Here is the input.
Amino acid sequence: MRFKAFVTIVMGCTAAIMTPLVALAEEVSKAPAPVDPVLNTGDTAWMLISSALVLLMLPGLALFYGGMVRSKNVLSTMMHSFVAMGIVAVQWLVVGYSLSFGADIGGGFLGGMGKAMMDGLIAIKDGTPVYTLFQNVATEPGAVPEYVFAMFQCMFAMITVALISGAVAERIKFSAFCLFVLLWTTLVYDPLAHWVWMVDGWLFKKGALDFAGGTVVHLSSGISALALIIFLGKRHGFPHERMAPHSLPLTLIGTGLLWFGWYGFNAGSAIVGVNTSDAAGGLAALAFTTTTIAPAAAGLTWMFAEWIHSGKPSALGFASGVVAGLVGITPAAGFVTPAWALVIGVGAGLVCYCAILVKAKFKYDDSLDAFGVHGVGGTFGAIATGAFATVGATGLIAGNTGQFMTQLVAVGAAGAYAFIVTCILAFILDKTVGLRVEKEDEIMGLDQTQHSESGYNLF
Here is the structure.
């Protein structure tokens, strides 16, 4: 019965996302003509590089998560990140980009279908392809092809849903996860991106600040991870059985790749900043700098906090601190000075370390700390942006209490929406295809039971 339900859901999702194809049957030559601005090749080159850097974060995340699970689950865990690349790329083309960055269809909550299949991003004029240029959130003409912006944002959607997998590793069905990726990206991520990053989004209109995804990416994925944990329950043997990481060297390599790719994540987001004709200019340089300072400070803070608390500094602790700092600075990267980035990094390291200690106290099974690092760190970063913003915006320390309150509203609204919709999705998937593998399959390991493979064939 569950196999039939799985097939039914797959067919339904496919039909839903393929509906726009009917409306797009006409030749792309009928697409609207581009705007006047001249292409800026320097900005375009930087945005292409930034997009590739963000894509590299997916293999980085796979290594980061894969090293932290037991060896019998390394492939299944890494597959969660890789399959997200495939599913989201197709979803983004068909409906995702349009729902996120298409013209608003009412109330600032969702984009329309005018850019489904990325229609209108290229026109054929006198037999020659002419590319529309990106228009930033201030509706000023951009200087890079909109295709570049669309692909840059596609990478954001990929990494966001992949982050959630860290909370449910070692016990979720692969089929259920694939369906979850498709549905969550469409129903949670796309609307949130529209709320915060489009000029007609309701949180954008309120003045919410999110430079590169503290609310849209990290808060939403972390809160959604918590919702999934509630439905899945604990791993068999948790917390009494020791479930140590099988390869911390993989996790450290993954940390390095994440930090490296994060420069594209944050510095590349200058394209939707103050001036899109300066996407590779001063604002990107500021974001690049703060993305160096905050994770460095957070990694050291976590390490020393752990050293004091438990008597030994750990490699996993430093790596977790670095990621916490990257999460914390993401919404603030282009809004704060390097000095305040240092403060945010220290705060993110402490707050997220305390969140991990709370997990141990309450014994909820967040396998790889997706909620503790991304949910808590994203919330802290979004609020800290409202407190310490001094570049291109003013926060609490500059006397702007209203901005701080707006950040609280954005955090509450985005968190509540992500949690509620994820709970609904989890309930539906659990009652149809089933979310969790059988106990025997979990004990044997998901590499064998879900993929008929083994990460390490040593004998």
